[in-house]
Amino acid sequence: MLYRTRLQEKLDEALQAVLPIIVIVLALSLSIAPMTSGVLLAFLLGGVLLVAGMMFFTLGAELAMEPMGEKVGSKVTQTRKLWLILPVGFFLGALITVSEPDLQVLAGQVQSIPNSVLILSVAGGVGLFLALALLRMLLGVRLRTLLLVFYAMVIALSFVTPADFLAVAFDAGGVTTGPMTVPFILSFGVGISAIRSDSNAHGDSFGLIALCSVGPVLAVLALSLIYRADGALYSPAVVPNYADTVELRRLFTEALPTYLGEIARALLPIMAFFGAFQLVSLRLNRLSLARIGVGLLYTYVGLVVFLTGVNVGFMPAGSYLGKTLASLPYRWVVVPVGMLIGYYIVKAEPAVYVLMRQVEELTSGAVTGAALQRSLSVGVSVSVGLALLRVLTGLSILWFIVPGYVLSLALSFFVPDIFTAIAFDSGGVASGPMTATFLLPLATGATLAVGGNVVTDAFGVVAMVAMTPLIAIQLLGVSFRLRERRRVPLAANADDIEAAIDRLDDYEIIAL
Amino acid sequence: MSELYLMTTIIDRKLLPRFVALYQERHIPVNLISLGHGTVPPEGAARFLGNAEKAVCFSLVTAQTWRETKRALRQTLHIDVPGVGVAFTVPLSSIGGRRELAFLTDGQNFTRGEESVMRGTERELIVIIGNQGYSELIMDAAREAGAYGGTIVHARGTGMERAERFLGISLASEKDMIFIVVKTAQRDLIMQKIMLKAGMETPAKAIAFSLPVSDTAGLRLMDAEDEDAAAT
């Protein structure tokens, strides 16, 4: 009874997340954007895998990733040993990042920097910033202060970085915080604040991902100065080519081992990390361990299925869609269509669910997941629109990124701290595999159609998707604050008070 | 006839907005919301599907408001359908301050009545506070004595000493609070089992106490099963 309803719930969630995108693409393909039936069929099959993958992933995150992160976070803080906490933070950040599949893709794109140098420095950057984020919590420095300092550095560096390279550097921030990293690090932060009783505890639950996404941007920007990087490569999406449906299935099954390996590599460091903790100090009972084990299995299966579906099915469709839409005589149509897709696509981003749950839990439902999701949707919608506008006009990414970050940092002075933390976290959360495999190919396809420069124009979509949520979520915070101020205290109507009560003293303890 | 009650509603988290809307419509001024989880079922595949997500809402109501609210809970929100949730009332014994009383009962038609009946209620609410992570141990003990399921709310303990400091933060111990509504007849056995299996000598370090529950809504299933048992 219970388990049927739980699965049903997860299935409903996954369907709600993925169906809108499928409907939109289907409608487009039947009206203004002709697609070969091969691409469309692969897309639909990918959609089915997406639903299944999403369902298992959210279940797994709930059963395994969240409890693991929370337990390790609480335990390590309880030791009250700074020499332990900071290295744990560093290695956790670095290890998880090294194994993040998207980082390998990024390294492949950047030709002028040796892969190992790039991967190690980005991983080092994340590790360093995670340790710094922990130190910030312990010392009680405001998150805003650190964000101001580091984003000022980022903006300053971006003016001296070669233009060809900027987009890739900013993409790095969004790319490295993937669906594996986010649940674990997010819960790690929640675990740390769970055992705190000071007034900042709640606001501090978030903000780890925020600083973790600055690390890679700074690392890549700094590297570009050393290596005099002069551009990036991109690999065009492979249009699926198959004769019959069995070959189509083969397309998916052939891609499967890649992701089986990738996700195993990504999951392994987290498991090893947790295993070590369990042996040394956690000592959970067998049922809890069994639940975490099963949850890890769900996470693994879910992510493999999800990534296979999205890479094989969605990537070609995105690229195709971008190309056809931008070759239309009324090519501006790609902007509103992209915005519509952007609005719905963030719902299908696996890590968003984890953030929604954690925010709801931490604010005891005051900030609902639905409100958060709506703000994210609006944010991503705007960012896709702007990114596609950039594709059509060829404007430099600096025109968007710099004012965007300045605005979001300025907003942080007007909203409660917790919203700033959630907002800067959600930047990394919103830009996950859906962005990389659907929005990026969409922009790339459109750039190719208008004859622009893929490296400067199309790249940067990820950076935009990672930036607009900062503004959108903080605006949600502003509206939250305004609503709170407007709420007038209910004044008890003195006439209603019965005479017997009226005779009582103001400070009397009234027995009932 | 018009005592004040602490009305506690424990429901599926997704339904919370509808319940809160109903309460606000009925001028119940205070609704304190906390999020909790259902306890893990003892066996079967359901153990590996995550915990049911619940919301706990505490509100202050007068007897009259409760009677009306209960009807609405049954008729418009179908609280008796299994899996929706429960609502129950715990009588208050006193309240601090005249203005506060006026505020809390504003629009609820409060008149000070006779002393409320605190003993001999049909059901009681057992509250168990134990170290975090031992809710399964506690529930296993409770189930042995015939309890069904409970709801867990995370809490932080403050302890008798001042909170421990570590650099700029203060550390507290993590606790689980478990709510179980039981028949008064079952109460002693369940609490004894919990003390024995998860009490102060065990790592769970659980303490248990009970509160009188004057009325409930949404426990039809429990009633029906008891009637079945009585019939056979």
Walkthrough of the structure:
The complex is a heterodimer of chains A (512) and B (232). Chain A has 512 residues and is mainly alpha-helical. Chain A has helices at residues 2-30, 37-78, 82-98, 101-109, 115-139, 143-160, 163-176, 181-194, 208-227, 245-282, 286-327, 334-345, 350-362, 369-393, 398-411, 417-430, 433-450, 454-458, 461-486, 499-502, and one strand spanning 509-511. The two termini of chain A are 43 Å apart. The mean pLDDT of chain A is 86. Chain B folds into 2 domains: 4-117, Alpha-Beta Plaits (2-Layer Sandwich); 123-212, Alpha-Beta Plaits, CATH 3.30.70. The chains are: A mainly alpha (512), B alpha+beta (232). At the A-B interface, helix 1, helix 2, helix 5, helix 11 and helix 20 of A face strand 2, strand 5, helix 3 and strand 9 of B.
Which descriptors apply to this entry?
heterodimer, A: 512 residues, mainly alpha, 20 helices, globular, B: 232 residues, alpha+beta, Alpha-Beta Plaits, two-stranded antiparallel sheet
